[in-house]
Amino acid sequence: xxxxxxxxxxxxxxxxxxxxxxxxxxxxxxxxxxxxxxxxxxxxxxxxxxxxxxxxxxxxxxxxxxxxxxxxxxxxxxxxxxxxxxxxxxxxxxxxxxxxxxxxxxxxxxxxxxxxxxxxxxxxxxxxxxxxxxxxxxxxxxxxxxxxxxxxxxxxxxxxxxxxxxxxxxxxxxxxxxxxxxxxxxxxxxxxxxxxxxxxxxxxxxxxxxxxxxxxxxxxxxxxxxxxxxxxxxxxxxxxxxxxxxxxxxxxxxxxxxxxxxxxxxxx
Length: 268
Ligand SMILES: CC(C)(COP(=O)(O)OP(=O)(O)OC[C@H]1O[C@@H](n2cnc3c(N)ncnc32)[C@H](O)[C@@H]1OP(=O)(O)O)[C@@H](O)C(=O)NCCC(=O)NCCS
Hints:
The protein is of the alpha+beta class.
């Protein structure tokens, strides 16, 4: 496993809104090692970067070094206003409200993550639904369980990233995933008593798909079969421009939400 670095726990931008607490409160509890400042209420109207996760107990040891993560609650009352204040618009006028809010919240989180890794202009574009990152930066967006999250890094540190968060998929719905899984993978999941086995498998595919898609590689989900070395870590080999690359997958579960991070190293 990669060595972790303290992420937002030590930086000046270590802010967290209390409004985040009902969903995944444990994500934001103070580090047992005491490196976090206490959670602060931020004045969102003067804080275009939105809400940042600070808990070293959560971030340490799983996010790839040099990456930054930002989170928005999609039910935050001021999402629309903050998005408008920085020029973020939904891509269509007629989106249903939930989709509109998750899109705007995702873009706000993206701006925050990009600012945390030093982007002067944290504006992202869009192509066929996929984010287009500013030159010199990479990242990924996901939403689920009332949260919109974005991860970003400098391209000199990471070639590509993919993030996925998912609420737990109940076992009785798991059969729906069969089409997206390899036969051996599906059988192994069926034989497992781990209540997270299906969610972990699905989130890994989503995160790896995003990571590869950002490298212009479209892969069928059933071909994205990670080799799990523990419940927290897997590796997946993929091909980009005829060359094999390794995707690292790191996973954590907090308060009934799985967080999956895929990363492709520079030079792979
Ligand atoms: C693109 C995809 C990965 C999104 O994942 P999801 O779990 O549905 O949704 P998430 O909330 O985690 O992620 C959505 C975000 O992914 C990003 N995204 C969309 N397309 C993307 C792509 N091709 N590459 C990277 N990121 C992408 C967007 O930022 C989007 O958020 P936004 O529209 O608000 O900006 C998903 O639609 C997918 O699986 N597409 C591939 C089709 C496929 O093969 N599915 C399997 C069927 S068996």
